[in-house]
Amino acid sequence: MSVAENLASVRERIARAGRDPDEVTIVAATKGFGADVCQKALDAGLTILGENRVQEALGKMAAVPGAKWHLIGHLQTNKVRQAAGRFALIQSVDSLHLAERLAQIDAKQAVLVEVNVAREPQKSGADPDRAIALIDEVSKHLDLQGLMAMGPTEGDPTPAFHELGRLRDEAQERLGRSLPILSMGMSGDFEAAVSAGSTMVRLGQVLFGPRPEAA
Asked: In this structure, are residues 73 and 94 in contact, taking their beta carbons and an 8 Å threshold?
């Protein structure tokens, strides 16, 4: 199936999960795929492309004009200077140190705070018990737009997704302003995520098929 056909299927599944597809932003996760696949995503109407690695993203930005790029993978501090100001949204801020480094280069950088609601040590993200304090601090340094999380590797992801939603609600009340983006849900669990209130999903395999082995 083509990317356009896969996208139509995804939108139908979002609707069956009880949400208006127009209310859920799809970020096409293009890690490991070439510029040709990125262009097919754009041609299908997917205007936001997400990359896990700064270097891979920078290599594609020139080759695929017209896309908005999100950094959806962990950002190492030694890559901050290359990333700040280059991405429409950095979804993976998980420490005050990282936020401060980004702010030194571009205080207008739009970001999400990543929270490890799965509570899995192999995943990046802030400790949920400390997330509100981090959100408060990040909002003082950067253009904080919301929260991001990955679901658990195994089991029902719904409780973790609901926890991220509760953290977002608490943070909005504390800050006195809206945090409109709740980025949660990937190819294997996006239906549970949108049912739990996700406003943004990060999809790769369900749109493009299996990722190339080298990735």
From this structure: no
Q: Beta partners for 26? A: 201
Class of domain 3-208: alpha beta
| Contact between 183 and 127 (Cβ < 8 Å) | no
pLDDT classification of 169: cutoffs 50, 70, 90: very high
Distance CA(164)–CA(88), nearest Å, equals 22
pLDDT digits (tens, 9 = 90+) for 116-128: 999 999 999 999 9
Which secondary-structure segment (H or E) carries 160?
A: helix 158-175
Q: Is the dihedral of CA 24, 151, 156, 165 positive or negative?
A: negative
- Whole-number Å distance between alpha carbons of 105 and 128: 27
Residue pLDDT, tens place only, 184-206: 999 999 999 999 999 999 999 99
CB 162 within 8 A of CB 129: no
